[in-house]
């Protein structure tokens, strides 16, 4: 399980390293029309608290996706164990197949 978690967590770092090794040579189509939208906040603390409250939803979504993925992996593991029991191999699991 730790290897799977490390794989997902290292994806942004590997993308950053790939961009350093092989930078884009063409002009990006998405970067030229970006404009900074001025918020309605007057103070820095107000803007930080509003950003933190918006981030709560994003973090909750990420955590729920991780829970769903782990649950689907456990169900798949249970199905493989059940099928392995039918074919006289009760130790069959997803981790055994991947290792």
Automatic annotation (TrEMBL):
<dbReference type="InterPro" id="IPR008276">
    <property type="entry name" value="C_nuclsd_transpt"/>
</dbReference>
<feature type="domain" description="Concentrative nucleoside transporter C-terminal">
    <location>
        <begin position="2"/>
        <end position="99"/>
    </location>
</feature>
<dbReference type="Pfam" id="PF07662">
    <property type="entry name" value="Nucleos_tra2_C"/>
</dbReference>
<dbReference type="InterPro" id="IPR011657">
    <property type="entry name" value="CNT_C_dom"/>
</dbReference>
<protein>
    <recommendedName>
        <fullName>Concentrative nucleoside transporter C-terminal domain-containing protein</fullName>
    </recommendedName>
</protein>
């Amino acid at each position: 399980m730790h290897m799977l978690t490390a794989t997902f967590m290292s994806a942004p770092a590997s993308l950053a390293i790939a961009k350093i090794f092989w930078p884009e040579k063409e002009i990006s189509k998405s970067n030229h029309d970006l404009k900074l939208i001025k918020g309605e906040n007057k103070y820095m603390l107000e803007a930080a608290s509003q950003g933190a409250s918006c981030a709560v939803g994003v973090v909750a979504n990420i955590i729920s996706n991780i829970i769903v993925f782990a649950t689907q992996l456990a169900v798949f593991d249970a199905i493989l164990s059940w099928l392995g029991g039918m074919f006289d191999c009760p130790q069959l699991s997803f981790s055994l197949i991947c290792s």
